[in-house]
Write a structure and sequence with these properties.
Layout: H1 2-29, H2 34-52, H3 58-70, H4 83-87, H5 97-104, H6 114-136, H7 140-148, H8 152-156, H9 174-215, H10 220-235, H11 245-257, H12 264-268, H13 279-284, H14 293-315, H15 319-324
Length: 333
């Protein structure tokens, strides 16, 4: 589940990125150019088809891969993992009351089969990734509506928050607009790389401890080895200055968004990157001002780490218990 979820997360973020980047470039670099919008729409539609194609798209592959790993190897065979073990607190924990409540939000009351869990997990991943992407690109919903018509973003991506709306307009100065496009691309790529890195670190740690609990419950050395693996994996997030995932995210955003001609006011402006729409939430996360690219990077880091933790918990509902076994807190500090 963790591997399938990680692959899907990477694919969906990249497809959303290509869609919004194409529209944002038109708005900023070629304002009023209908041909540019039409080309961006065609490019985006290709990405959406690859995401949603029944049986072949990324969304379908996520569910198929979960069923392939946990369900019958071939029709008529028993599932490789008994649903009881999939759901129980002593197994993978997908039947815990908290998980059942979350699934109920997506129309699955008391999930009882591998198919139910696969579908619920898929829907939750889709939602969390849309929420994450909205933090990378506050004008994302506006850009998608510009390509496909008013309300299209909500219909296609119901968890994509409305965010900023510049009315289809861009920044007036061509040099500033060019810098804004580069900054927005950087934020999305760096943000996704950071989030997926955090997710992988959590998956590695949780998987090591889970193997001990399920495969070697009487081996006293197993947890110590798992702790070493966890220390190494989670340590990658906060390695010495300039080396960890968090610092790399910050440095990349500051480098590409923190110099003239792009000013903090352009980053906040609804006709620029639109991050003024995130100011209140950033304040609630301990970043009271977005007066610099460094401030923006700090807020994006916190937002993305929380979303990555939520994805990890969907994949491994017992993750808090697993990390606790090696002295790690969850959510991460």
């Amino acid at each position: 589940m963790s591997k399938a979820g990680g692959v899907f997360a990477s694919a969906k973020l990249k497809r959303l990125e290509k869609c919004v980047d194409a529209a944002f470039a038109c708005v900023q670099r070629k304002p009023g150019d209908t041909e540019c919008i039409l080309k961006a729409r065609a490019k985006c539609q290709k990405q959406l088809d690859s995401l949603t194609n029944p049986g072949k798209g990324d969304e379908a592959k996520l569910r198929i891969n979960i069923l392939k790993a946990c369900g019958p190897k071939k029709p008529g065979d028993p599932p490789q993992l008994d649903p009881i073990h999939l759901l129980s607190n002593q197994g993978l924990g997908h039947g815990a009351a908290r998980e059942a409540d979350r699934c109920a939000l997506f129309g699955f009351v008391n999930p009882a089969t591998i198919d139910d869990v696969a579908e619920c997990l898929g829907l939750q991943h889709e939602c969390r990734l849309e929420q994450m992407f909205a933090k990378e690109a506050p004008r994302a919903a506006e850009m998608l509506d510009l390509l496909f018509g008013a309300g299209a973003s909500n219909q296609q991506f119901p968890c994509l928050e409305a965010g900023a709306n510049g009315g289809g307009a861009g920044l007036q100065n061509p040099d500033v607009a060019k810098a804004a496009v580069k900054c927005q691309q950087t934020i999305k790529k760096a943000g996704a790389k950071f989030a997926l890195g955090v997710l992988k670190s959590l998956q590695t740690c949780a998987g090591a401890v889970r193997d001990c609990i399920q495969k070697k419950p009487t081996d006293p050395t197993c947890v110590n080895k798992a702790k070493s693996k966890c220390d190494k994996a989670i340590g990658k997030i906060t390695l010495p200055p300039g080396q960890g995932l968090a610092d790399k995210l910050r440095n990349t955003i500051v480098k590409n968004c923190g110099a003239a001609p792009l000013l903090p006011s352009h980053i906040l402006d609804p006709t620029g990157l639109g991050y003024l729409a995130e100011a209140a939430q950033c304040d609630s996360l301990g970043v009271p001002s977005l007066s610099s690219a460094a401030d923006l990077a700090d807020c994006i880091r916190i937002q993305h780490q929380r979303r990555a933790e939520q994805l990890a918990e969907k994949q491994s509902p017992r993750i808090g218990e697993l990390l606790d076994a090696v002295g790690r807190s969850f959510p991460l500090p």
